[in-house]
Write a structure and sequence with these properties.
This protein is α/β, with parallel strands linked by helices and 390 residues long. It has 13 helices and 17 strands. One of its GO terms (biological process) is protein folding.
């Protein structure tokens, strides 16, 4: 009786498992936008077009969690004009395909390119942004929504793509914000749409270019800038690395950083080219002594991450405008977080941000410690300036 009872329980379990698998298989097929391939169809179509394929098992819980996202991806991209087909293969029924593709776990996601002999395995997180970013990296251009919708699922390549052949001439002059990346890098994939948005914001800028370099292909370029991790974001001027960006990678944070490096205000300047040149002079360890050598120079020593510095930034710009027509008064700033300015800030005994120091003919004559209202700052400089004129 015990044996028969145990056998009955096991048979019940197996029937339940079979029922679950059948229902799950049906769930994968009901109103699916995703292309389901059998062995014959897979062999016939896989080399005709780019494919992103999910190899799955109906009983796999990870597959079940991925299913709605995969369907959403298929709904967005499976149309006549798309450059990629979203497909799936059931490894419990199409064992020959899965053995050939060396599928050892579920789900396994592979990108098959018409330009590559071997497929690329997706290794990122299985959410819609990560999947679309991966496809964007593989295809290297935009994918439009089905039906001709003007909104884009994946952004156009607004950042300029540089190569081993083009990077040196492009970066040799001017200011550039460059992303060094690897297509397989999960952090790079997550950053990709934001970086293209940054590129779009400055695509017509006369003052900076937003660029990117794929280090898996352009090793000479990445070696020349000593790139050791991905993504690495460098500010480059006239071919020389000036700073490495290590802050948050949101669109606003990246744009604020660019504005700071261009010498504008953080909170008010959306696009540098829409504003006149800043009246505030940026000084560095290389030109500081020359910059303060004659007349009055009022210098703000700051850090871009400092909240008080950000609050002062627009006021400092206004102060620069007020003294713009005074030949012997200069309003300036020094970013103490830049590597080549750290020694300068130590020499000037800057121990907090912002530090506001007034110089006359190359000599420090005072530190401003009052309120940071425009009128008070103007009065502080004006007193010294008026006294000197008398």
């Amino acid at each position: 009786m015990y044996f028969n009872g145990k056998l009955a329980i096991n048979l019940c379990f197996l029937q339940s498992l079979l029922f679950f698998s059948q229902n799950f298989a049906e769930e994968f097929d009901v109103d699916s936008k995703c292309v389901q391939y059998n062995a014959e169809e897979f062999a016939e179509n896989i080399n005709k077009k780019n494919h992103f394929v999910m190899f799955y098992a109906p009983w796999c819980t990870h597959c079940k969690r991925l299913y709605p996202t995969w369907e959403e991806l298929a709904e967005m991209l499976n149309d006549e004009g798309s450059r990629v087909t979203i497909a799936k293969v059931d490894c419990t029924s199409e064992t020959s395909i899965c053995d050939q593709q060396d599928i050892t776990g579920y789900p396994t996601l592979k990108y098959f390119s018409t330009d590559l002999l071997e497929p690329v395995k997706f290794r990122g997180t299985r959410d819609l942004p990560s999947l679309t970013n991966f496809l964007n990296e593989q295809l290297g251009s935009s994918l439009a929504k089905p039906g001709g919708d003007t909104d884009e699922v994946i952004l156009d390549a607004a950042a300029k793509e540089l190569t081993d052949e083009s990077y040196s001439s492009h970066l040799s002059s001017g200011k550039h914000f460059v992303k060094f990346y690897a297509p397989w890098c999960g952090h790079c994939q997550r950053l990709a749409p934001t970086w293209e948005a940054v590129g779009g914001a400055y695509v017509n800028s006369k003052f900076v270019t937003i660029a990117k370099i794929d280090c898996t292909v352009n090793r000479d370029a990445c070696k020349s800038y000593d790139i050791k991790s991905y993504p690495t974001l460098l500010w480059i001027e006239d071919g020389r690395k000036i700073d490495k960006y290590q802050g948050p990678r949101t669109l606003d944070d990246l744009k604020n950083y660019i504005v700071e490096m261009l010498g504008g205000t953080v909170d008010q300047m959306e696009e540098a080219e829409e504003h006149p040149p800043s009246p505030v002079i940026s000084l560095s360890g290389e030109n500081f002594l020359k910059g303060i050598s004659s007349g009055f120079t009022f210098v703000k020593f700051f850090a871009p991450w400092c909240g008080h510095c950000k609050g002062l930034a627009p006021t400092w710009e206004e102060l620069g405008k007020k003294f713009a027509n005074k030949d012997n008064v200069v309003i300036a700033k020094v970013d103490c977080t830049l590597e080549y300015n750290k020694e300068l800030c130590n020499e000037q005994e800057v121990d907090g941000f912002p530090t506001l120091l007034l110089y006359k003919d190359g000599e420090k004559i005072g530190e401003y410690t009052g309120t940071r209202a425009l009128e008070d700052l103007y009065e502080f400089v004006g007193k010294h300036f008026a006294h000197d004129e008398l």
